[in-house]
Amino acid sequence: MHHQSYDGLQNDIREMKTPSIETWKNEYSDKDYTIEVTTPEFTAICPKTGLPDFGTIQIAYIPDEQCVELKSLKEYFLFYRDVGIFHEHVVNKILEDFVAACSPRRVEIVGDFHVRGGIKTVIRANYEREDV
């Protein structure tokens, strides 16, 4: 294995500045209900080859005080089309940014990426607020 060829490629992912995800006030914050958002045309760049990676990102969340505004979420996703990032990292970065934006009660982010080199990758990342 040539692990050294990956050295330094992903060191700054957690600190990477991404577009802000806007929110609006949830008038039904007294209820648990699920919002599902899917973007079937997600694109990022493979940090190893520089080629585009395609996939579907699915978000299922139970909002609390805030709901995510969809136009800003779309612009957030578009940011990644020029970013070299591993599948595992992009799903976890989306989770961190999403939780920071709207403080949901629960959220699951699924990255379902197209087959690449005969391998299919699906990444799931979850968050549940402790006080729920």
Task: Give your account of this protein's structure.
With 132 residues, the protein is an alpha+beta fold. It has two helices and six strands, in the order ββββααββ. The N and C termini lie far apart (44 Å). The relative contact order is 0.22.
Write the layout of secondary structure elements.
Layout: E1 23-25, E2 35-45, E3 52-62, E4 66-68, H1 70-79, H2 87-102, E5 106-116, E6 119-128
Antiparallel strand pairs: 1-4, 2-3, 3-5, 5-6
What is the percentage of strand-forming residues?
A: 35-45%
Give the structural class. alpha+beta
Nearest-angstrom radius of gyration? Answer: 16 Å
Number of helices: 2
Low-confidence stretches: none
SSE topology string: EEEEHHEE
Spatial arrangement of strands, main beta sheet: 2-3-5-6
Biggest sheet layout: 4 strands, antiparallel
Number of strands: 6
User: Gap between N and C termini, in Å?
Assistant: 44 Å
Q: Looking at the structure, what is the overall shape?
A: elongated
| Percentage of residues in helical conformation | 10-25%
Write down the overall mean pLDDT. 92
